[in-house]
Design a protein that fits this description.
Bound molecules: glutathione
Shape: globular
Structural class: alpha+beta
Number of strands: 4
Helix content: 55-70%
Radius of gyration: 17 Å
Strand order of the largest sheet: 2-1-3-4
Largest sheet: 4 strands, mixed
Strand content: 5-15%
């Protein structure tokens, strides 16, 4: 049965899910949905009213982390979760660090103010943007730099869900005109460039850039 991902392409959580599908080589249809004032019908599928939501076999499954974990079981190869128990847990932690933490303190304020508000015809609150640039983003980049060390990938020596979850929200920063200071975080900047150059990310980044307001 076909897979359908419901959500907006610019969401870091939707992108994370789409990259995961692309890395698995599993085709899907994207049904665009902006998550503001969603219908009661959508809330039956995604009770928190958030995106993404997956439809498969006539059933609905919300949440990017849950969707990725489900697809890993449906399509185990290539494996995108570590098999070692400790590495597996660390990958899940880094996913949660981004989804439940760094996205809210670092990426969301910048992206919402500079891109989402612009799309809605509003004015960016640059004080909120600067606070994220001066506090939230440096704290997150310091932590991720420490986690990365000298490795090519974040966990277990190979590409995993941790790399997808960590790298996706940085695309939102770039869309909002914030690029990482490569002098301050050289290893993290080089890592992100490598991950964003993978065909799975590259195709989406190009598609999103073309659709952004100039
Ligand atoms: N934990 C969720 C978070 C999803 C999420 O917060 N999505 C945002 C868009 S980037 C959303 O739908 N926001 C609408 C809302 O919070 O009502 C996931 O991983 O899917």
């Amino acid at each position: 049965m076909a897979f359908k991902i419901i959500g907006a392409a610019l969401s870091p959580f939707v992108r994370k899910t789409r990259v995961f599908f692309a890395e698995k080589g599993v085709p899907y249809e994207l049904e665009p949905l902006i998550p503001f004032g969603v219908s009661a019908e959508y809330k039956k599928k995604s009770p928190l009213g958030k995106i993404p939501c997956l439809e498969h076999d006539g059933r609905a499954l919300p949440d990017s982390s849950v969707i990725c974990a489900y697809l890993e079981k449906v399509q185990p190869q290539p494996a995108l979760y570590p098999s070692d128990p400790w590495d597996y847990a660390r990958a899940l932690w880094l996913e949660e660090y981004m989804d439940g933490g760094f996205i809210n303190t670092g990426m969301a304020p910048v992206f919402f103010e500079r891109v989402v508000k612009k799309l809605m015809g509003g004015q960016a609150d640059e004080a909120r943007v600067q606070e994220a640039i001066e506090k939230g983003i440096p704290a997150g980049c310091d932590y991720l730099t420490e986690q990365l060390g000298d490795q090519e990938y974040l966990v277990g020596g190979r590409f995993t869900i941790a790399d997808i979850a960590v790298s996706s929200p940085f695309v939102n920063l770039a869309h909002a005109g914030v690029t990482l200071d490569a002098k301050r975080w050289p290893k993290l900047a080089a890592y992100l460039e490598r991950i964003h150059s993978r065909p799975s990310f590259k195709a989406l980044i190009e598609e999103e850039r073309a659709a952004l307001p100039k």
